[in-house]
Amino acid sequence: MLEPSPHRSGFACLVGRPNAGKSTLTNALVGQKVAITSSRPQTTRHTIRGILHRPDAQLVLVDTPGLHRPRTLLGQRLNDLVHETLAEVDVVALCIPADEKVGPGDRFIAEALAAAPRSTKLAFVTKTDKASRQQIAEQLLAVTAMGDQLLGGFADVVPASAVSGEQVDVVAEVLLKHLPEGPRLYPDGELTDEPEQVMIAELVREAALEGVRDELPHSLAVVVEEMTKPDDGPLRVHVWIYVERDSQKGIVIGRGGARLKDVGIRSRRGIEKLLGTKVHLDLRVKVAKDWQRDPKQLQRLGF
Ligand SMILES: Nc1nc2c(ncn2[C@@H]2O[C@H](COP(=O)(O)OP(=O)(O)OP(=O)(O)O)[C@@H](O)[C@H]2O)c(=O)[nH]1
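^ GTPase Era, sequence as received from the core. Prediction below:
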Protein backbone atom coordinates (compact mmCIF):
# COMPACT_ATOMS: atom_id res chain seq x y z
CA MET A 1 0.00 0.00 0.00
CA LEU A 2 1.13 3.54 -0.71
CA GLU A 3 2.09 5.66 2.27
CA PRO A 4 -0.26 8.67 2.45
CA SER A 5 1.66 11.85 1.60
CA PRO A 6 2.37 14.05 4.62
CA HIS A 7 0.07 16.99 5.36
CA ARG A 8 1.58 20.37 4.53
CA SER A 9 0.67 23.78 5.90
CA GLY A 10 2.05 27.26 6.04
CA PHE A 11 1.89 30.89 5.00
CA ALA A 12 2.45 32.50 1.64
CA CYS A 13 2.52 36.08 0.56
CA LEU A 14 2.11 37.69 -2.83
CA VAL A 15 4.19 40.80 -3.40
CA GLY A 16 4.70 43.06 -6.37
CA ARG A 17 4.35 46.56 -7.71
CA PRO A 18 1.01 48.33 -7.25
CA ASN A 19 -1.52 46.99 -9.76
CA ALA A 20 0.52 43.83 -10.44
CA GLY A 21 -2.61 41.72 -9.85
CA LYS A 22 -1.90 40.38 -6.35
CA SER A 23 -5.39 40.88 -4.94
CA THR A 24 -7.11 39.46 -8.01
CA LEU A 25 -4.89 36.37 -7.93
CA THR A 26 -5.54 35.94 -4.20
CA ASN A 27 -9.28 36.02 -4.88
CA ALA A 28 -8.95 33.56 -7.76
CA LEU A 29 -6.99 31.18 -5.54
CA VAL A 30 -9.32 31.39 -2.57
CA GLY A 31 -12.51 31.55 -4.62
CA GLN A 32 -14.10 34.35 -2.67
CA LYS A 33 -13.67 38.07 -2.59
CA VAL A 34 -11.53 38.72 0.46
CA ALA A 35 -9.00 41.23 -0.75
CA ILE A 36 -10.14 44.43 -2.38
CA THR A 37 -9.29 44.99 -6.02
CA SER A 38 -9.44 48.28 -7.77
CA SER A 39 -8.07 49.68 -10.99
CA ARG A 40 -6.19 52.20 -8.83
CA PRO A 41 -2.82 51.37 -7.29
CA GLN A 42 -2.17 50.98 -3.57
CA THR A 43 -5.63 50.24 -2.30
CA THR A 44 -4.78 47.13 -0.29
CA ARG A 45 -4.24 48.49 3.22
CA HIS A 46 -4.72 45.53 5.48
CA THR A 47 -3.00 42.21 5.68
CA ILE A 48 -5.82 39.98 4.52
CA ARG A 49 -5.57 36.23 4.73
CA GLY A 50 -7.39 33.85 2.50
CA ILE A 51 -7.14 30.12 3.23
CA LEU A 52 -6.81 27.42 0.60
CA HIS A 53 -8.01 24.04 1.86
CA ARG A 54 -6.97 20.73 0.30
CA PRO A 55 -7.22 17.21 1.74
CA ASP A 56 -3.45 17.08 2.12
CA ALA A 57 -2.52 20.75 2.57
CA GLN A 58 -3.58 24.10 3.89
CA LEU A 59 -2.22 27.38 2.62
CA VAL A 60 -2.78 30.67 4.42
CA LEU A 61 -2.42 33.52 1.95
CA VAL A 62 -1.33 36.86 3.28
CA ASP A 63 -2.04 39.71 0.92
CA THR A 64 0.19 42.69 1.67
CA PRO A 65 0.02 46.24 0.40
CA GLY A 66 2.19 47.03 -2.60
CA LEU A 67 5.80 47.57 -1.60
CA HIS A 68 6.75 51.09 -2.63
CA ARG A 69 9.09 53.88 -1.74
CA PRO A 70 7.45 55.62 1.24
CA ARG A 71 6.50 59.30 0.99
CA THR A 72 4.41 59.66 4.11
CA LEU A 73 4.22 58.12 7.55
CA LEU A 74 1.43 55.92 6.24
CA GLY A 75 3.69 54.76 3.40
CA GLN A 76 6.38 53.94 5.93
CA ARG A 77 3.93 51.95 8.08
CA LEU A 78 2.83 49.99 5.05
CA ASN A 79 6.42 49.15 4.16
CA ASP A 80 7.17 48.06 7.72
CA LEU A 81 4.14 45.80 7.55
CA VAL A 82 5.40 44.25 4.32
CA HIS A 83 8.85 43.59 5.75
CA GLU A 84 7.41 42.05 8.90
CA THR A 85 5.22 39.81 6.79
CA LEU A 86 8.09 38.75 4.52
CA ALA A 87 10.18 37.68 7.49
CA GLU A 88 7.41 35.41 8.79
CA VAL A 89 6.03 33.54 5.79
CA ASP A 90 7.17 30.24 4.24
CA VAL A 91 6.71 31.24 0.62
CA VAL A 92 6.91 34.65 -1.07
CA ALA A 93 5.77 35.06 -4.66
CA LEU A 94 6.72 38.10 -6.68
CA CYS A 95 3.95 39.04 -9.14
CA ILE A 96 4.96 40.75 -12.36
CA PRO A 97 2.46 41.51 -15.14
CA ALA A 98 3.11 39.76 -18.46
CA ASP A 99 2.32 42.91 -20.41
CA GLU A 100 4.73 45.31 -18.66
CA LYS A 101 8.51 45.35 -18.92
CA VAL A 102 10.48 44.23 -15.84
CA GLY A 103 11.58 47.53 -14.30
CA PRO A 104 13.28 49.23 -11.35
CA GLY A 105 10.13 48.75 -9.21
CA ASP A 106 10.35 44.96 -9.64
CA ARG A 107 14.08 44.94 -8.92
CA PHE A 108 13.52 47.05 -5.78
CA ILE A 109 11.12 44.38 -4.49
CA ALA A 110 13.33 41.45 -5.55
CA GLU A 111 16.16 43.01 -3.54
CA ALA A 112 13.83 43.31 -0.55
CA LEU A 113 13.03 39.60 -0.90
CA ALA A 114 16.71 38.73 -0.79
CA ALA A 115 16.65 40.12 2.77
CA ALA A 116 14.14 37.44 3.84
CA PRO A 117 16.36 34.36 3.63
CA ARG A 118 14.02 31.88 5.32
CA SER A 119 11.27 31.84 2.70
CA THR A 120 11.08 30.09 -0.66
CA LYS A 121 10.91 32.65 -3.46
CA LEU A 122 8.60 32.17 -6.44
CA ALA A 123 7.61 34.43 -9.31
CA PHE A 124 4.20 34.62 -10.97
CA VAL A 125 3.92 36.27 -14.36
CA THR A 126 0.36 37.64 -14.08
CA LYS A 127 -2.31 38.87 -16.53
CA THR A 128 -1.20 36.48 -19.28
CA ASP A 129 -4.57 37.06 -21.01
CA LYS A 130 -3.24 40.53 -21.88
CA ALA A 131 -0.05 39.30 -23.59
CA SER A 132 0.91 37.25 -26.65
CA ARG A 133 2.64 33.86 -26.28
CA GLN A 134 5.84 35.49 -27.48
CA GLN A 135 5.56 38.26 -24.87
CA ILE A 136 4.88 35.71 -22.12
CA ALA A 137 7.91 33.62 -23.13
CA GLU A 138 10.15 36.68 -23.12
CA GLN A 139 8.77 37.79 -19.76
CA LEU A 140 9.45 34.36 -18.23
CA LEU A 141 13.07 34.64 -19.37
CA ALA A 142 13.43 38.22 -18.09
CA VAL A 143 11.92 37.36 -14.69
CA THR A 144 14.07 34.23 -14.35
CA ALA A 145 17.21 36.25 -15.20
CA MET A 146 16.33 38.91 -12.63
CA GLY A 147 15.82 36.21 -9.96
CA ASP A 148 19.18 34.61 -10.81
CA GLN A 149 20.90 37.95 -10.59
CA LEU A 150 19.32 39.37 -7.43
CA LEU A 151 18.31 36.50 -5.16
CA GLY A 152 20.00 33.32 -6.25
CA GLY A 153 17.11 32.21 -8.47
CA PHE A 154 13.35 31.71 -8.06
CA ALA A 155 12.33 28.18 -7.03
CA ASP A 156 9.58 28.30 -9.69
CA VAL A 157 8.36 30.83 -12.24
CA VAL A 158 4.72 30.36 -13.30
CA PRO A 159 2.62 32.32 -15.83
CA ALA A 160 -1.10 32.71 -15.01
CA SER A 161 -4.21 34.79 -15.56
CA ALA A 162 -6.51 35.40 -12.61
CA VAL A 163 -9.12 36.84 -14.96
CA SER A 164 -9.34 33.96 -17.46
CA GLY A 165 -8.44 31.42 -14.77
CA GLU A 166 -5.70 29.94 -16.94
CA GLN A 167 -2.98 28.27 -14.83
CA VAL A 168 -4.48 29.39 -11.50
CA ASP A 169 -4.56 25.70 -10.52
CA VAL A 170 -0.84 25.44 -11.30
CA VAL A 171 -0.16 28.51 -9.16
CA ALA A 172 -2.02 26.82 -6.28
CA GLU A 173 -0.10 23.54 -6.74
CA VAL A 174 3.25 25.31 -6.80
CA LEU A 175 2.44 27.33 -3.67
CA LEU A 176 1.34 24.18 -1.81
CA LYS A 177 4.35 22.19 -2.99
CA HIS A 178 6.76 24.53 -1.24
CA LEU A 179 5.02 24.48 2.15
CA PRO A 180 6.67 22.65 5.01
CA GLU A 181 5.08 19.55 6.53
CA GLY A 182 2.66 20.53 9.24
CA PRO A 183 -0.85 20.13 10.65
CA ARG A 184 -4.03 22.00 9.72
CA LEU A 185 -3.85 25.57 11.07
CA TYR A 186 -7.52 26.56 10.67
CA PRO A 187 -10.79 24.62 10.65
CA ASP A 188 -12.14 23.48 7.26
CA GLY A 189 -14.24 25.93 5.33
CA GLU A 190 -12.79 29.03 6.92
CA LEU A 191 -11.81 31.41 4.16
CA THR A 192 -10.49 34.39 6.02
CA ASP A 193 -9.69 35.39 9.57
CA GLU A 194 -10.10 39.10 8.91
CA PRO A 195 -12.55 40.58 11.38
CA GLU A 196 -15.94 41.30 9.81
CA GLN A 197 -15.64 45.00 10.49
CA VAL A 198 -12.42 45.32 8.53
CA MET A 199 -14.04 43.58 5.57
CA ILE A 200 -17.09 45.85 5.83
CA ALA A 201 -14.83 48.91 5.92
CA GLU A 202 -12.98 47.62 2.84
CA LEU A 203 -16.23 47.14 0.94
CA VAL A 204 -17.26 50.73 1.67
CA ARG A 205 -13.78 52.00 0.82
CA GLU A 206 -13.84 50.20 -2.50
CA ALA A 207 -17.27 51.65 -3.38
CA ALA A 208 -16.22 55.15 -2.27
CA LEU A 209 -13.12 55.08 -4.48
CA GLU A 210 -14.89 53.86 -7.60
CA GLY A 211 -14.50 56.39 -10.41
CA VAL A 212 -12.96 59.27 -8.43
CA ARG A 213 -9.80 61.25 -8.83
CA ASP A 214 -6.26 59.95 -8.46
CA GLU A 215 -5.30 61.60 -5.17
CA LEU A 216 -8.21 60.19 -3.24
CA PRO A 217 -7.00 56.59 -2.56
CA HIS A 218 -4.39 57.74 -0.06
CA SER A 219 -6.70 60.31 1.50
CA LEU A 220 -9.55 58.02 2.41
CA ALA A 221 -9.94 55.87 5.48
CA VAL A 222 -13.06 53.99 6.49
CA VAL A 223 -14.00 52.95 10.01
CA VAL A 224 -16.97 50.90 11.21
CA GLU A 225 -18.03 52.90 14.28
CA GLU A 226 -20.82 50.71 15.54
CA MET A 227 -23.00 47.73 14.68
CA THR A 228 -26.31 47.34 16.49
CA LYS A 229 -29.24 44.94 16.11
CA PRO A 230 -32.62 46.39 17.12
CA ASP A 231 -35.30 43.78 17.94
CA ASP A 232 -37.66 44.99 15.27
CA GLY A 233 -35.38 45.71 12.31
CA PRO A 234 -32.32 44.86 10.29
CA LEU A 235 -28.74 45.11 11.54
CA ARG A 236 -27.62 48.76 11.66
CA VAL A 237 -24.06 49.42 10.54
CA HIS A 238 -22.63 52.90 11.20
CA VAL A 239 -19.64 53.72 9.04
CA TRP A 240 -17.50 56.86 8.91
CA ILE A 241 -15.52 57.77 5.84
CA TYR A 242 -12.55 60.00 6.69
CA VAL A 243 -11.05 62.40 4.15
CA GLU A 244 -8.25 64.93 4.59
CA ARG A 245 -9.84 68.06 3.15
CA ASP A 246 -13.26 69.70 2.70
CA SER A 247 -12.82 69.54 -1.07
CA GLN A 248 -12.46 65.76 -0.85
CA LYS A 249 -15.58 65.55 1.29
CA GLY A 250 -17.42 67.21 -1.59
CA ILE A 251 -16.10 64.65 -4.04
CA VAL A 252 -17.17 61.72 -1.90
CA ILE A 253 -20.64 63.14 -1.20
CA GLY A 254 -21.32 64.39 -4.72
CA ARG A 255 -23.94 66.83 -5.98
CA GLY A 256 -26.89 66.82 -3.62
CA GLY A 257 -25.49 63.71 -1.90
CA ALA A 258 -26.04 61.61 -5.02
CA ARG A 259 -22.65 59.95 -5.03
CA LEU A 260 -22.71 59.01 -1.35
CA LYS A 261 -26.17 57.53 -1.82
CA ASP A 262 -24.84 55.41 -4.67
CA VAL A 263 -21.81 54.35 -2.59
CA GLY A 264 -24.23 53.34 0.17
CA ILE A 265 -26.40 51.26 -2.12
CA ARG A 266 -23.45 49.43 -3.69
CA SER A 267 -21.57 48.72 -0.48
CA ARG A 268 -24.77 47.66 1.33
CA ARG A 269 -25.26 44.91 -1.24
CA GLY A 270 -21.74 43.61 -0.57
CA ILE A 271 -22.17 43.79 3.20
CA GLU A 272 -25.48 41.92 3.06
CA LYS A 273 -23.85 39.22 0.98
CA LEU A 274 -20.90 39.00 3.38
CA LEU A 275 -23.04 38.81 6.53
CA GLY A 276 -25.98 36.93 5.03
CA THR A 277 -28.51 39.30 6.58
CA LYS A 278 -30.40 42.51 5.76
CA VAL A 279 -28.48 45.64 6.70
CA HIS A 280 -29.31 49.28 7.29
CA LEU A 281 -26.16 51.20 6.40
CA ASP A 282 -25.50 54.65 7.84
CA LEU A 283 -22.62 56.43 6.05
CA ARG A 284 -21.06 59.69 7.32
CA VAL A 285 -18.19 61.61 5.78
CA LYS A 286 -15.79 63.42 8.11
CA VAL A 287 -12.71 65.56 7.60
CA ALA A 288 -9.63 64.50 9.62
CA LYS A 289 -6.93 66.93 8.57
CA ASP A 290 -3.60 65.41 7.48
CA TRP A 291 -4.45 62.04 9.02
CA GLN A 292 -1.78 60.36 6.94
CA ARG A 293 0.96 62.29 8.73
CA ASP A 294 -0.41 62.21 12.26
CA PRO A 295 0.55 59.13 14.33
CA LYS A 296 -2.39 59.57 16.72
CA GLN A 297 -4.95 59.73 13.95
CA LEU A 298 -3.30 56.80 12.13
CA GLN A 299 -3.67 54.69 15.25
CA ARG A 300 -7.31 55.69 15.64
CA LEU A 301 -7.98 54.75 12.03
CA GLY A 302 -6.45 51.34 12.54
CA PHE A 303 -3.03 51.68 10.93
N1 LIG B 1 -6.65 41.31 -17.83
C1 LIG B 1 -6.32 41.04 -16.56
N2 LIG B 1 -6.40 41.99 -15.63
C2 LIG B 1 -6.05 41.70 -14.36
C3 LIG B 1 -5.61 40.39 -13.99
N3 LIG B 1 -5.33 40.42 -12.66
C4 LIG B 1 -5.59 41.68 -12.23
N4 LIG B 1 -6.03 42.45 -13.26
C5 LIG B 1 -6.42 43.87 -13.18
O1 LIG B 1 -5.31 44.66 -12.79
C6 LIG B 1 -5.72 45.69 -11.87
C7 LIG B 1 -4.95 45.57 -10.57
O2 LIG B 1 -5.25 44.32 -9.96
P1 LIG B 1 -5.13 44.11 -8.39
O3 LIG B 1 -5.36 42.67 -8.13
O4 LIG B 1 -5.95 45.10 -7.65
O5 LIG B 1 -3.60 44.47 -8.18
P2 LIG B 1 -2.75 44.53 -6.83
O6 LIG B 1 -1.41 44.06 -7.18
O7 LIG B 1 -3.45 43.83 -5.72
O8 LIG B 1 -2.73 46.08 -6.59
P3 LIG B 1 -2.42 46.94 -5.25
O9 LIG B 1 -3.52 46.63 -4.28
O10 LIG B 1 -2.49 48.33 -5.78
O11 LIG B 1 -1.06 46.59 -4.77
C8 LIG B 1 -7.23 45.53 -11.69
O12 LIG B 1 -7.86 46.42 -12.56
C9 LIG B 1 -7.47 44.09 -12.10
O13 LIG B 1 -8.76 43.90 -12.62
C10 LIG B 1 -5.55 39.38 -15.01
O14 LIG B 1 -5.19 38.22 -14.80
N5 LIG B 1 -5.90 39.77 -16.27
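The beta strands are 8-16, 48-54, 57-63, 91-97, 120-126, 156-159, 221-228, 235-243, 279-287.
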